[in-house]
Amino acid sequence: VVYPWTKKYFSSFGNLSTTSTIASNDRVQAHGAKVLTAIGDALVDLPNIKQNLTDLSRLHSEILHVDPENFRLLGQCLVIVLAAKFGAKKFNADVQAAWQKLMGVIAAGLSKQYH
């Protein structure tokens, strides 16, 4: 588990004690799908991406009290997963830079209600 302190946000998800229990946890998988769907939905109107993330930012800041640093960490993890999945030929330096920039914008959008 890369960032074990983040498990506190998912205490209702059941056993998250090992990598295998996390990977096979239905609630973790559903939340992952929800996160990726939210990212996809925010991308539909790219010029207004930060405004598209306002409701999620408010939820995570005012109700869930998630440390906004976790949004940056999530972005880094996603870039690593994509690089591993697609390999260096398809996920070259330019693609990586674009994804890092995008994830930075998403992290900023999700963090905006904290300021």
Descriptive report:
- 68% of the residues lie in helices and 0% in strands.
- The mean pLDDT is 94.
- It is mainly α and 115 residues long.
- The longest helix is centred in the last third of the chain and has 22 residues, at 69-90.
- It has six helices and no strands.
- The chain has helices at 19-23, 26-43, 49-52, 54-63, 69-90, 93-111.
- The chain starts with 18 loop residues before the first helix and ends with a helix.
Strand content: under 5%
Largest sheet: none
Number of E-state strands = 0
- The N- to C-terminal Cα distance equals 30 Å
User: Which overall shape is indicated by the principal axes computed on the Cα atoms?
Assistant: globular
Give the number of helices.
6
Fraction of residues in H or I helices = 55-70%
Order of helices and strands: HHHHHH
Rounded mean pLDDT score: 94
Low-confidence stretches: none
Structural class assignment: mainly alpha
Radius of gyration: 15 Å
Secondary-structure blueprint:
Blueprint: H1 19-23, H2 26-43, H3 49-52, H4 54-63, H5 69-90, H6 93-111
Record keyword descriptors for this entry:
115 residues; 6 helices; mainly alpha; 68% helix
Concise synopsis of the structure shown:
This protein is mainly alpha-helical and 115 residues long. The chain has helices at residues 19-23, 26-43, 49-52, 54-63, 69-90, 93-111.
